[in-house]
Amino acid sequence: MRSRKTDQLALEHGVSWLFDDEMFAGWKRHGNTTWSLSSLVTMALIWAWGDDGGLQERFRKGLTILPRLDRSGEWGGTYQGFVKVLRTWTKRLLPAVVRRLRERMQNIGATDWKICGWTVMAVDGTRIETPRTKENEAWFSRVPKHRRRHRQSSRRRKSTQKRKQQPAAPQVWLTVMWHVGLGLLWDWRQGPSGCSERAHLQEMLDELPEQTLVVADAGFQGYEYWQSLIERDHSFLIRVAGNVRLLRGLGYVRRRKQIAYLWPDAVRRRKQPPIVLRLFEFHDGRRSVWLATNVLDPGRLSSRQALKIYHLRWGVELFIRGFKQTFGRGKLRSRAPQNVELELHWSLIGLWCLELLAVRELLARSRTPCDLSTAGALRAVRQALQSAAAGVDFDLCSQLAAIRHDGYRRRQKSIRSWPKKKTTIPAGPPQLSSANTEQIKTANELRNQAA
Description:
By secondary structure, the protein is of the alpha/beta class. The protein has a domain at 4-112 and 364-402. Helix content is 44%, strand content 15%. The chain is built from 16 helices and ten strands. It has helices spanning 4-8, 10-18, 37-49, 55-69, 79-108, 134-140, 154-163, 197-204, 223-231, 265-269, 303-312, 314-326, 337-364, 374-390, 396-402, 437-450; strands spanning 119-129, 171-179, 184-192, 212-216, 235-240, 245-248, 259-262, 275-283, 288-293, 431-434. The strands form two sheets. Strands 3-2-1-4-5-9-8-7 form an eight-stranded mixed β-sheet, with helices on both faces. A two-stranded parallel ribbon has the order 6-10. Helix 9 (223-231) links the parallel strand 4 and strand 5 (235-240). Helix 3 (37-49) crosses helix 13 (337-364), helix 5 packs parallel to helix 13 (337-364) and helix 13 packs across helix 15. The chain starts with a helix and ends with a helix.
């Protein structure tokens, strides 16, 4: 049986493994700040992990837990002061915190870092609701395009406004980059609901490891975005649908069965080269799925490996669902836009740390990251926080190592009537056409110039 002292320090050791005082050595803080940086980050984690409904309740409960995890004793006692200091330091703290978590991932995940010889990153986007305040609506709501309005009589205008439905709640657009091998978060971007997830992807490209394979669904198509990946020496495996026009028989490279080209007319007129692709067609039991990649060598990425990697992409969907439902961030609670962004940043950091601690314990016992259960890890950490607040023993390491995915096979839910069920028609296959004489001539000229 473990000693009482070891049990009490299990949570403290976990937090100190994530973030230690050496991270903030040499950092200067303002003279009026009562919070030390290590205490601020520790409280932000407790604040994100808390199971109380309100943000202030989480902070007040965190004040009883913080003395057991941080020995410095340098922190404030008001929620307003904590949020103000956290808002001031978050812009500088986030890069250091993200860099440390990535280092910890590399330290524990040597065997699971790559899949089929690739460092695979999955990307996907979602919307997070915020409270309906005037500030949030002005900051996060999509700005509609200018439309010409006809003058109406006052009586007709009032009846139109009465019939008008209440607009949707303001939303934050969140795009996440997820490490497929370890099943952990890697990067994210957020913005108003009118943001582009493809633009978010371009912002995250510089944070990718060398020669990464980016796998994504059909929302991340486009010449500019794929060219950005190629220019940074990355590869991609992305689903293509009916809104993509591809060419066959262009003659830019040696003709093979799976070769196709992405070459929009606007790009061709600018004398830019086409993107050479390999096309895969699979059947998921209901319809055909088309995948495109810039990896032309079948020895580096075979059809079987491409299908396996694309199936593993589903993990990013499960991560987003776990963040919104299991972790309870489907709707944020902050009423000011700056605090909404703050809450979202540290909620993602909290979930990242939570799952990283769990994966660390699983790998230490020769298990795989696939056994990770977000609900089980969250339950174990929250029990450790409650035990720390009450001064009761709790073996967090053993609890994290004991979590296991339930393995239950869910039945098909398509026959059920869901309130927010999507009814859009699935996208069809990409539009494949043969290159004409002018396109072949321009491609040959570009190839000769490049040679």
